[in-house]
Design brief:
The complex is a heterodimer of chains A (about 110) and B (about 850). Chain A is of the alpha+beta class. Helix content of chain A is about 65%, strand content about 15%. Chain A has four helices and two strands. Chain A has a two-stranded antiparallel sheet with strand order 1-2. In chain A, β1 and β2 form a beta hairpin. The chains are: A alpha+beta (about 110), B alpha+beta (about 850).
């Protein structure tokens, strides 16, 4: 996987998770792991830089809120621009995976 | 410029990021705890899963500021990052900087010395055209010309642009207040122009000042001008007293000047050769002659051009002597670099070896570091840190190490050079002027830069090949590291063996049996000046008074005076073949090798503990009697009088006015320097009527402390002549001075060997420590399966010893080959001395085992349970 694809995939997963509602970094990793039934595990080392980059690119915004266990946590929320990007990426991903699947089946 | 606001924002960002990550870690830990882990373990596990917080921190921060930052800021940040990253690995950093400092410092210092010996042009203009010209006779160790011949030979103009003359340096005394013994050399007025040397102050000697009986003109060496006359720029024209006679300073030599025989020379005096008299052979002086070849003329043509002059010279000497002499025209370049050249190459080899060890050491450390960081590198690569990015980061780390090592290394080199200048013996070209060369700064800087580039590409190379999991370095890399350590050990063997041989040589020299009992003896030497001690009677009177004075010192059991003490002679000799026995004609003049002459007073043998094998010592009254007595050395007695007692026989060396009666035979002593073959020797008494040399060496055997005796001797001599400079010290100090050059060689090479062994030990330790860290799991599994601690220890030591043995074997082979190249520097030990090599091998095996022991022990004391939980 090229760097760009890896980055796009991670962005896609983060945006999709946040589309369900705002969440903190830890929550995002937990959701992705659960939703993929343990198949995908996000590296923390990649997550936070990606979140901060998305924020810089105005795809998400963040604010400090009190979490479920009473601790202060940074919650990320998807923006309108983020939703638009999610739609685009989702479409691309589906056509890419469909294409890959067909090629694999063909052989 | 980052404004205050900007910095404030960056600080907030840092704080928030830390809090965010902290929250994440706590949540993860809580999750693990719910799954049943203990609180401690869960925190550790959370951290483990998260990876390095500081890297995440750094990468995230970069998301905010990276885009806007200029290249310069990036570089600055990388250096800061590299600094923190190195601080987290103090062992690696210290080892790398140490290796670099030692390697670079030692190499730069020695290269500065060797450079002048091997590569620099001579300190004369167009020095390659300079030749030494002369007749090589069996008596002299270098070619010489007689004054009359010099006067004729300098008329040769077809091959030579000129011929000039200089005397051997001789002791001379500056007899002013605060008298001092100096080394003078006589030079013809053509000397400095021929060598292309310009005085830095004043002028050269004028032709009219070089005529016999002209008032003495002298040129000071730069060091004497600086140290004694405060570098006075108006020194020219000043009158001083030299050997009690007035002399005028006319000029000052440049600081870079070297006398062409490399002897220490404090001042040049006009040679004042009386050429008409010399040509008629009414006076015979010996000079060293130097010529300048016309451009395009080679040595062969110069020799051919001088051949007729040499043929003419042959007609002036006895036929028997003709076969013993030959014409010699040699490049001054070769003559001056001469003996030091071998030492130069050996040292250069040592420099290269130490640099190689240092370099492989750093390479090894870096490989180990990058392998243990493979995980971190993989993360950073996954996060989008491009290949260039990682290369920059590694380059920044290496640059920090390199810069530190470079500065420290050059500092070390400067210190070492200061020591060299102070301790170096005379006779090594340029060593008194040696200094750090700007070219060395540039060269070492360039090498470091190239190394940084090479090294920083190493680890990213592995990642970019798509190895997503490079945590455990493959077998290929481990083999590379082992090979590097093997090479280090091999080079160290070579270094230590070479140093060992030189140390052995030095010990042989110190243990030399001079045939003299040196303990409890103090010596004083001086040269009696022409002015005050003009006649034989003057000098004889001085020697008698000196003996009487010294005999009054406390605890004295014997006092003697000689012109020179073993292992040297005053330089007077005759040919064996010129001695006639009991009135029979001599066996053949000019043949049979050299016989040393030494003038002594009666107690000489007792004072130096030389055994008298037959006959008796000289009597006091023999010092004034008309019929001469002589004592032979054992070697000479056996040769002149085989199978008979020489006592009572008569001998007469050709050219001596008297016949001498043999009164005794003394045991042989070392009398031709430290390492040369002993020569037969003739002892004459100081004689008030005929011979009382200017050279005076007194020796006192006393039960009192040498330091006290030396002080009292100085007082005694000062009371006799306050203006006479003397050198006083225990007999053994004289030997130490003669040992100076081998000691210098041995010290330099030992320093290198020490550095080499240290670096090799560091290498073994580094690689093994890394190995143990990498194989913690494997070791844990082995132990869980029943391997005992002893077996683990044995397994690791066995592993180390396999490549140690390979290194040692290679090293011994290399040392064998290399030592042959510096046979000429050795004395009393063969290049392949088995004891030296065996000692070196055992020593290095021990060092290697010791360096391996620490990590091996750590492996053996691992808790298998803990290692299996690891990861």
């Amino acid at each position: 996987m090229s760097q760009a694809t890896a980055q796009n995939t991670l962005d896609l997963l983060i945006l999709k998770t946040l589309a369900r509602g705002s969440n903190h970094g830890f929550g995002i990793t937990v959701h992705i792991q659960n939703a993929s039934e343990g198949l995908l595990r996000i590296e923390e080392g990649s997550l936070y830089p990606a979140l901060h980059r998305l924020e810089r690119e105005k795809a998400v915004s963040s604010e400090w809120k009190t979490s479920e266990n009473g601790r202060r946590a940074r919650y990320y929320k998807i923006s309108a621009a983020g939703r638009k990007r999610l739609e685009e990426h989702e479409g691309q991903w589906h056509s890419l995976s469909a294409g890959v699947a067909r090629v694999l089946d063909f052989a | 410029m980052k404004g205050w606001f900007e910095r404030r924002r960056a600080r907030d960002l840092d704080r928030e990021l830390r809090e965010e990550m902290q929250f994440h870690l706590e949540m993860r830990a809580a999750e693990y705890e719910r799954e049943g882990m203990s609180p401690n373990d869960s925190t550790a596990a959370a951290h483990k899963r998260f990876g390095s917080t500081s890297i995440v921190h750094e990468d995230t921060r970069r998301m905010h500021i990276g885009a806007a930052a200029s290249l310069l800021e990036t570089a600055g940040r990388e250096v800061g990052f590299a600094f923190r990253s190195l601080r987290r690995a103090p062992a690696f950093t210290a080892a790398a900087v140490l290796a670099l400092t030692l390697g670079l410092g030692g190499a730069a210092a020695v290269f500065s010395v060797v450079d002048r010996i091997l590569f620099r042009s001579l300190p004369y203009s167009d020095g390659n055209r300079l030749v030494s010209v002369g007749v090589r006779a069996p008596l002299a160790d270098h070619p010489i010309l007689l004054g009359g011949d010099y006067s004729e030979w300098k008329e040769e103009h077809s091959a030579l642009d000129g011929l000039t003359a200089a005397s051997e340096p001789f002791d001379c005394d500056l007899t002013e207040n605060n008298p001092v013994r100096l080394s003078c050399a006589g030079v013809a007025w053509t000397f400095l122009p021929l060598f292309g040397v310009e005085p830095v102050a004043g002028r050269n000697i004028r032709p009219e000042e070089d005529l016999p009986k002209a008032p003495q003109s002298i040129i000071l060496s730069h060091a004497l001008w600086r140290d004694r006359y405060g570098a006075d720029p108006k020194i020219a024209g000043r009158q001083i007293q030299l050997n009690g006679e007035p002399a005028t300073i006319v000029g000052v030599l440049p600081g870079s000047f070297e006398f062409p025989t490399l002897a220490q020379v404090d001042l040049l005096v006009a040679l004042q050769l009386n050429e008409p008299v010399e040509r008629k052979r009414q006076a015979v002086s010996m000079v060293n002659a130097f010529g300048r070849l016309k451009s395009g003329v080679g040595l062969e043509r110069a020799r051919a051009a001088l051949e007729p002059f040499f043929a003419n010279f042959l007609t002036t000497i006895t036929p028997a002597f003709r076969k013993e002499v030959r014409l010699e025209v040699g490049s001054l370049n070769d003559a001056m670099r001469g003996r030091a050249r071998t030492a130069g190459w050996v040292l250069l080899g040592a420099v290269a070896a130490v640099l190689l060890i240092a370099w492989t050491n750093i390479a090894n450390l870096w490989l180990a570091r990058s392998a243990s960081r493979a995980h971190e590198i993989a993360i950073r690569a996954a996060l989008g840190a491009g290949k260039a990015r990682l290369t920059i980061h590694h380059a920044a780390e290496l640059a920090l190490i390199a810069a530190t090592g470079w500065f420290a290394g050059l500092g070390l080199a400067a210190c070492l050079l200061a020591i060299f200048r102070r301790t170096a013996p005379a006779g090594i070209i340029g060593v008194r002027h040696v200094a750090l060369d700007p070219r060395i700064f540039l060269f070492s800087g360039a090498v470091l830069l190239a190394s940084i580039l090479g090294f920083s590409l190493l680890p990213t190379g592995a990642v970019s090949q798509g190895e997503s999991d490079v945590r455990i370095a493959g077998g290929r890399k481990m083999r590379l590291r082992n090979a590097l350590v093997t090479a280090q050990l091999a080079i160290s063997v070579f270094l230590v063996a070479s140093a060992g041989l030189l140390i052995h040589t030095l010990r042989e020299l110190s243990d030399l049996r001079f045939g003299v009992r040196t303990e409890g003896t103090v010596t004083a030497s001086a040269v009696l000046g022409q002015q005050k001690y003009r006649t034989i009677a003057d000098r004889y009177a001085f020697v008698s008074r000196l003996e009487d004075g010294l005999r009054r010192l406390p605890g004295v059991s014997a006092v003697a005076v000689a012109d020179e003490l073993p292992p040297l002679t005053a330089g007077m000799g005759i040919m064996y073949g010129s001695i006639s026995i009991d009135g029979r004609p001599p066996s053949g003049q000019g043949r049979g090798g050299n016989v040393n002459l030494r003038h002594i007073t009666p107690e000489y043998f007792r004072a130096l503990g030389i055994e008298l094998l037959r006959g008796r010592p000289f009597m006091r009254e023999e010092m004034n009697s008309a019929d001469g007595s002589v004592i032979l050395s054992d070697r000479l007695a056996r040769r002149l009088f085989p199978n008979q007692d020489p006592a009572g026989h008569f001998i007469k060396p050709a050219g001596f006015p008297k016949t001498y009666t043999v009164v005794g035979v003394a045991a042989d002593v070392k009398n031709a320097g430290l390492t040369a073959e002993d020569a037969p020797e003739l002892y004459f008494p100081y004689d008030s009527t005929r011979s009382a040399p200017r050279f005076v060496s007194a020796v006192v055997r006393s039960a009192a402390k040498p330091a006290l005796v030396a002080r009292l001797m100085a007082d005694e001599i000062r009371a006799m002549d306050a203006e006479l400079p003397v050198t006083i010290g225990p007999f053994n100090d004289r030997i130490a001075r003669l040992n100076a050059r081998p000691r210098f060689n041995a010290a330099l090479l030992s320093m290198f060997a020490g550095i080499g062994v240290l670096l090799a030990a560091l290498g073994v330790y580094g690689v093994l420590a890394f190995l143990v860290t990498q194989r913690v799991r494997e070791i844990g599994v082995r132990m869980a399966l029943g391997a005992t601690r002893g077996r683990i220890l044995g397994w690791i030591l066995c592993y180390v010893m396999s490549w140690t043995a390979a290194g040692l074997a290679l090293g011994v082979a290399g040392a064998f080959a290399a030592a042959r190249q510096f046979r000429s520097m050795l004395y009393g030990v063969t290049p392949s001395d088995p004891w030296t090599l065996a000692t070196v091998v055992v020593l290095l095996a021990c060092v290697s085992a010791l360096a391996a022991y620490v990590p091996a022990r750590r492996a053996a004391t691992l808790d298998p349970a803990a290692t299996l939980r690891h990861d």
